[in-house]
Amino acid sequence: MDFKLTEEQELIKQAARDFAQNELLQGVIERDEQQKFPKEEVRKMGELGFLGMMVDPKYGGSGLDTLSYVLVMEELSKVDASSSVIVSVNNSLVCWGLETYGTEEQKEKYLHKLATGEIIGAFCLSEPEAGSDATSQKTTAIDKGDHYLLNGTKNWITNGGTAGVYLVIAQTDKDKKHRGINALIVEKGMEGFEIGPKENKLGIRGSDTHSLLFNDVKVPKENRIGEDGFGFKFAMKTLAGGRIGIAAQALGIAAGAYELALKYSQERKAFGTEISNHQAIAFKLADMHTQIQAARLLVYQAAKEKDNGANYDLSGAMAKLYASQVAMETTVEAVQIHGGNGFVKDYHVERLMRDAKITQIYEGTSEIQKIVISRSILK
Ligand code: CAA
C-alpha cells in the first residue's frame, strides 16, 4: 500500500498543524483545568472545513478523503484531544452516518448545518447498562404511528450539552432483539428531552460529556434513519469508521507527547550533558518513535481501505487497539523523560497522559476491538 501523501494532503496536514499550534495550544491548559468547551475554536474549525471533512460539498462539506481526515485528527490531537474528539464525533459518527444512510430530506435539513459547524452533533448509544453490550438497549422508541415515543437515559455522550442534533439508538421491538432497534434524529429543545449533568472527567476535560434523559419525547417518523430495525447495524457501521478517527486521535496524542519529550531531552541537562545523550533516555525515544510509526501505518491503512471501498472493520479495530495502547505507553514514557517537570501541568505531557486513557475506552474498549479482530480472523 502506498502511503505517500499527495500535495493536497500535505497542505491539509500543515493547515491542521498551524491551527493546532496557533489557535489550540494557547488556552489548552486553562480549558482542561476549568472543563471549558472550546467554543470559539470549534467555530474556527468549522470555517476551516474540519467539521465536515468527508461530506460532499453539495451539503457544505469539504469532500475530502479519509486519509486527509486522519491527518487532521493527528495534528489536532497532538495539541488538544478535547477539541479533536469533537471533530471526530461530528465527522465520523454524525455526518458520515447521516450522509450514508439518511434520506435526502434529512440531509437537506441537518447535514449542511453539521458539516459547516453551524451546529454540532452527538451520537447516543451508550447507556448505564449498555456500553460494550450494545444490543442491550433499555431506551425505548415505541411506534405510535406517525411518531416514536422515546424514553430512557443515555450516558457519557460526547458533545452532550452543546450539540444541536442527536442520533439516538433505541429499542422499538424487544422481541426482535438487535433487529428491533432504531436510530432516530432528535433535536435539542424537543419536549421531554433533558440534558443531564456534565461529567467531571480524568481526561479530554474540555469536551462536553453528559448523560441525556428522554421522557416521552415525540420523534417524528421521518426522523428515523434507514428502514425499521436498521438502528443496530447503523450503529455498528458508523462506529467501524469512528474507530479510525479515534485511532488517529490516539496516534496524535502519542506523537504529541513524543515531540515534546524529544525536544525536552535535547535541552535538559543532567550529569553534565543533555539527557538525550544518556542511553536510558535515547532508548526510550527509539521505542516511542518505532511504536508511533507502526501505529501510523495501521491508521493510514484503515483510512485507505475505507477510501478504496474495502471492508475496514478489521483494519479500523486493529488501528484503534494498537494506537490507543501506544498512546498510553508513550505518554507515560514522555512524563518519565520530563521527570519532575512531567508531573507539572505547564509541560503538557501529564494532560496528554490523562487524555490517552479514553482512547482505550470510547467507541469500543480495547477488549471490544479484540472481539472484532478475533471474529474477523476466525470466521
Ligand atoms: N457492520 C455491520 N453490521 C454489523 C457489524 C458491522 N461492523 N458488527 C455487527 N453487525 C451486525 C451483525 O451482522 C448482526 O446482524 P445480523 O444478526 O442481522 O447478521 C448484528 O449486528 C449483531 O451482531 P453481533 O451478534 O456480532 O452483536 P454482539 O452483540 O455480539 O456485538 C460488538 C458485537 C462488536 C461487541 C458490539 O456490540 C460493539 O461494537 N460494542 C461496542 C459498542 C461501542 O463501541 N460503544 C461505544 C459507544 S459510542 C461512543 O463512544 C461515542 C462517543 O461519544 C465518543
TrEMBL record:
<feature type="domain" description="Acyl-CoA dehydrogenase/oxidase C-terminal">
    <location>
        <begin position="231"/>
        <end position="378"/>
    </location>
</feature>
<dbReference type="InterPro" id="IPR037069">
    <property type="entry name" value="AcylCoA_DH/ox_N_sf"/>
</dbReference>
<dbReference type="GO" id="GO:0003995">
    <property type="term" value="F:acyl-CoA dehydrogenase activity"/>
</dbReference>
<feature type="domain" description="Acyl-CoA oxidase/dehydrogenase middle">
    <location>
        <begin position="122"/>
        <end position="217"/>
    </location>
</feature>
<dbReference type="Pfam" id="PF00441">
    <property type="entry name" value="Acyl-CoA_dh_1"/>
</dbReference>
<comment type="similarity">
    <text>Belongs to the acyl-CoA dehydrogenase family.</text>
</comment>
<dbReference type="Pfam" id="PF02770">
    <property type="entry name" value="Acyl-CoA_dh_M"/>
</dbReference>
<keyword id="KW-0274">FAD</keyword>
<dbReference type="InterPro" id="IPR009100">
    <property type="entry name" value="AcylCoA_DH/oxidase_NM_dom_sf"/>
</dbReference>
<feature type="domain" description="Acyl-CoA dehydrogenase/oxidase N-terminal">
    <location>
        <begin position="6"/>
        <end position="118"/>
    </location>
</feature>
<dbReference type="InterPro" id="IPR046373">
    <property type="entry name" value="Acyl-CoA_Oxase/DH_mid-dom_sf"/>
</dbReference>
<keyword id="KW-0285">Flavoprotein</keyword>
<dbReference type="InterPro" id="IPR009075">
    <property type="entry name" value="AcylCo_DH/oxidase_C"/>
</dbReference>
<dbReference type="InterPro" id="IPR006091">
    <property type="entry name" value="Acyl-CoA_Oxase/DH_mid-dom"/>
</dbReference>
<dbReference type="InterPro" id="IPR006089">
    <property type="entry name" value="Acyl-CoA_DH_CS"/>
</dbReference>
<keyword id="KW-0560">Oxidoreductase</keyword>
<dbReference type="Pfam" id="PF02771">
    <property type="entry name" value="Acyl-CoA_dh_N"/>
</dbReference>
<protein>
    <recommendedName>
        <fullName>Cyclohex-1-ene-1-carbonyl-CoA dehydrogenase</fullName>
        <ecNumber>1.3.8.10</ecNumber>
    </recommendedName>
</protein>
<dbReference type="InterPro" id="IPR036250">
    <property type="entry name" value="AcylCo_DH-like_C"/>
</dbReference>
<dbReference type="InterPro" id="IPR013786">
    <property type="entry name" value="AcylCoA_DH/ox_N"/>
</dbReference>
<dbReference type="GO" id="GO:0050660">
    <property type="term" value="F:flavin adenine dinucleotide binding"/>
</dbReference>
